[in-house]
Every structure is written in structure tokens, then in C-alpha cells.
Write a structure and sequence with these properties.
The protein is built from no helices and 31 strands. By secondary structure, it is mainly beta. The strands form seven sheets. Strands 4, 5, 6, 7 and 8 form a five-stranded antiparallel beta sheet that branches. Strands 17, 18, 19, 20 and 21 form a five-stranded antiparallel beta sheet that branches. Strands 26, 27, 28, 29 and 30 form a five-stranded antiparallel beta sheet that branches.
Length: 403
């Protein structure tokens, strides 16, 4: 889920107008090891768009390397990052009109479909993405009715869409038509679990077998569900829910680890858990929790390569802290601070989402009311800021990139 208008950590006053995203996170929903990323160019640079999203003019000049979508006033606005490092709004397309400006999360599935749940109408707005122009076209049948319209996630293969209700704890599951993007409710959807009060943060493991639902507060347990690989139907994991002292988790894309944080004031730790590949049960890895430099953490992201973890928080004085980065040990799950972390020379941002290839992070820069692009060295995890920021009316909204 996006940091837009959603409180992931209820106790962090600094971000009470914000919230956690997923993996989907806004999480990538395609095989992240097979395409995209730096390609044959220099790691961390803006790369040629031809092998990522196809050639074509983005409406502002240059070939599109990545697209960014974000919620406007009753519409969804688009921006393009070109291979010549120009970051600008798409002006040659007509943004799709929405019934309201309500939305707390947004996701792109298989680089082809964009979904925006709207809680005021209990619907999901669904669009296909034209990677040549950046235009969004409503999918036939959209908006789709749903019992849950807050948090959203999908499985890595893009077969199922999971949507959580932050008030009732319900999780709606939809099967995604791979050709059209149309949504069909899975059998027995929406799903509920005993004592699941808030379906606040959703994360699907990298194998697509398990869904984890965090409730937004460390004193509430994280629920786990197995996913029926044919229908998407959910069944509660035996041994859960898990009292992990975290408000929710994000999962890596190998299916081996989940990383969470408590959001409790003064807790600057990242908690890492191993995922049992057979049962989906979560257990702390050796050395967890891992401290950060910040005073309190309110968000984290796992890089699409699963090599790095980035955290966002506040300092002791209550201001925004610099981004911190860590390597994620692929065997033990241990975290080690990157050489340049904390990244004190970068803009102070509250959340970043990477394109599927992992070369570019699009970040909510609240201090300047803008979106910042941070290029990522996919070998070292180092971040650099060389693209001019995109000023917007408000970036306290859900946003999602794709390439």
C-alpha cells in the first residue's frame, strides 16, 4: 500500500496522514530477475526503454524508461521518466476521470493493469496501461464491486488480486484475467478470520503461496493465509496468527524472508523473519531485530532484487530521517548497513517504490511537495539523485511506477 492517506503506524504522529504500501507492494508482480533493470547500461543509470516497456514517444519528448501514476483530483495523473533523464507529467493523454479523489493504495500488475480501490464506493477502478503513450483505458466491467477497498496486493504471477478492509478486517480476493485484466471474485470471497480486525498491510510471499495481513499496530498479531493456487481462495495458516511485535511485514521476492517494524515511538529496529516454505509460518532469524540510526521507523521497502532493504523514519527531533539501506543476507536473513547509509545527501523522503527492474526508485518528497527519482546501483544498493524532481499539487496520495 502506498504512503498516501493511509496511517500504517498509528502511533507515529509525523506520518498520521500517510501509510504503508505493499509490495506491494505496489510491489512488483512480475518475475523480477528476468527483465528490466540496468540491462547493458551502467548499473543505477536511467536505462534504455526499448527492452523494458517498448519504444515510443512519451508525450514530452524522448523514449520512456519508466512511468509513474498518482492520484489527482478525481483522476489519475501520469508522469514519464525518459532515457534522457527528463521527469515530467504526461501532457498528451487525457487522465481518466474518477467518481472521487478517495484512494489509499494503487498497484500495477504484470506491467499491464493498474488497480485503484476506492473505499467510499467499495469499488476497484481498473485500467490497462499503454506503454507507448502512457494512457490508461478503463477495463470492461470497471469499476468492480468489492467488500474491501483499502490495502491491495497481488501474487508475483499476477493471477490474483487481494484487497483488504481496514475497518472490518475482510480480505476480498479476485481472479485476474491475464488478457483483459478483468476481475472475478474468487470462491467464498470476501474472507474473514477470527480476531482479524484491520486488514491494513498486505504482503504476498515471493512464491505466491502465502498472504500476510498486518493490522497496523505492533500489539496486534500478523495473520497468515495459504493461497489456493487454482482459485486464489484463502485458508488461515495453522499456528497463526503470529505475535511478532510488528505492525505488518513486507516480503522479499525469493519467498524466503519477511521484514517488519513496530512503528512504536522510539523503536528503530527492523525485524526479519524466515518464511517456512511448507507452512508459511514466520520465525525470527538469528540476530533479529536489527537497529537503524533513525529514532523511529515508519516504513520499509525491499528492493526487487531481494538484495537490499531500505528504511524510512524520523530522527530524535521529530524531523524526517535520511534513508537507510541494508544488504539482506540471502542465507541467514541478516541485515548489514550499506557503506553509504544513512544517505544524508539525498532528499528526505517518506516512501520509495521501485520500478520492476529495480534501477529507479520513485519517492514521495513531502518537504518539497514533489516526487524524487533515485537511481539504484543494483550491485551495491547505493542511491543517487540526479534527476530534477517533479513538483505536484500534492503527493500525499497513492502512487505506483512501472517500466
Amino acid at each position: 500500500m502506498s504512503l498516501a492517506r493511509r496511517v500504517f503506524f498509528l502511533v507515529v504522529a509525523l506520518v498520521t496522514a500517510l501509510g504503508w504500501t505493499a509490495c506491494s507492494g505496489g510491489c512488483p508482480t512480475t518475475s523480477l530477475s528476468s527483465s528490466g533493470g540496468p540491462g547493458s547500461g551502467t548499473a543505477g543509470s536511467v536505462t534504455a526503454g526499448g527492452t523494458i516497456c517498448g519504444p515510443g514517444n512519451n508525450g514530452t519528448g524522448g523514449t520512456s524508461a519508466a512511468l509513474l501514476y498518482y492520484l489527482g483530483t478525481n483522476d489519475i495523473l501520469g508522469a514519464s521518466l525518459t532515457t534522457s533523464a527528463t521527469f515530467a507529467n504526461l501532457t498528451s493523454i487525457t487522465p481518466p476521470t474518477l467518481p472521487s479523489s478517495v484512494g489509499s493504495d494503487m498497484i500495477v500488475v504484470n506491467k499491464s493493469f493498474l488497480y485503484l480501490p476506492q473505499s467510499d464506493s467499495l469499488t476497484i477502478q481498473a485500467f490497462t496501461i499503454d506503454h507507448t503513450s502512457g494512457a490508461l483505458t478503463a477495463i470492461s466491467g470497471s469499476p468492480f464491486p468489492t467488500a474491501a477497498a483499502d490495502s491491495v496486493a497481488s501474487d508475483p504471477a499476477g493471477r490474483f488480486l487481494f484487497v483488504g478492509n481496514n475497518t472490518t478486517g475482510q480480505v476480498s480476493v479476485f481472479q485476474i484475467n491475464s488478457t483483459t485484466g478483468a476481475l472475478v471474485q474468487a470462491p467464498n470471497s470476501p474472507f474473514t478470520a477470527f480476531n482479524l480486525d484491520f486488514a491494513h498491510v498486505l504482503a504476498v510471499d515471493g512464491t505466491g503461496k502465502f498472504l500476510y495481513v498486518g493490522q497496523g499496530a505492533a500489539f496486534l498479531p500478523v495473520f497468515g493465509f495459504s493461497i489456493d493456487q487454482n482459485t486464489g481462495a484463502l485458508a488461515q495458516i495453522i499456528g497463526g496468527p503470529f505475535p511478532l511485535n510488528v505492525a505488518g511485514v513486507r516480503t522479499d521476492f525469493t519467498g524466503k524472508f519477511a521484514v517488519g517494524l513496530s512503528g512504536t515511538a522510539g523503536d528503530n529496529n527492523l525485524y526479519v523473519f524466515a518464511i517456512d516454505p511448507a507452512t508459511g509460518a514466520l520465525s525470527s532469524v538469528t540476530g533479529s531485530p536489527f537497529p537503524t540510526v533513525a529514532s523511529t521507523l515508519f516504513d520499509l521497502r525491499i528492493h526487487p532484487s531481494s538484495q537490499f532493504v531500505y528504511s524510512f523514519g524520523q530522527n530524535a527531533g521529530g524531523g524526517m530521517a535520511a534513508i537507510e539501506g541494508f544488504t539482506l543476507n540471502p542465507t541467514s536473513g541478516g541485515l548489514t548497513a550499506l557503506a553509504a547509509s544513512p544517505f544524508t545527501t539525498l532528499p528526505l523522503v517518506a516512501d520509495c517504490k521501485w520500478d520492476q527492474g529495480g534501477a529507479e526508485a520513485f519517492c514521495a518528497n513531502f518537504a518539497n511537495n514533489a516526487f524524487s527519482v533515485l537511481s539504484t546501483d543494483v550491485s551495491t544498493g547505493a542511491l543517487t539523485h540526479s534527476v530534477t524532481d517533479l513538483s505536484v499539487a500534492s503527493n500525499a496520495v497513492p502512487f505506483v511506477p512501472t517500466n
